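pasting for the record
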Amino acid sequence: MNIMLFHSAYGLRPAVRAAADRLRAAGHEVWTPDLFGGSTFETVEEGMARKEEIGKDELLRRAVLAAAPYSERGLVYAGFSFGASVAQTLALGDEKARGLLLLHGTSDIAPGVSVDGLPVQLHVAEPDPFETDDWLSAWYLQLGRAGADVEVYRYAGAGHLYTDPGLPDYDEEAAEATWRVALGFLGTL
């Protein structure tokens, strides 16, 4: 499978590269575009400030440019937190998308979006301050109405970015469970 993996607001950290290596070890081809031009951050506040400085339109332009050379192959879009929102936006706009793997995040769904059975898997902490229960319920229903085949996995007690061993949110048990399920999902596409 061809996977376009987007980083979180912390930037292209070692955990993102390690995730890409894990996916490659499972036989997938993976690209990890750097939407922040080499900047990484120690706090989510610093990363969010950089995200705002660059701007949503420019970040999406960079993401589209990164994915464009490979989209004809039928990409699986994936991402961590902010990167998951980028992945979702691209996947819902790419009729050749093969799947969508969301780790720690979702995004608004544009009105009128329609996908034909797009496989979507979301892994998120429970509770998660960025992905509230009400938000996730509405998101799930909207994506289902758009035609996606959605699976949601919640991890009680885990922190927001629980798959990144370099952050305080890290939860080894939840991270390993996430990767086990996610690799199974990717194997079905």
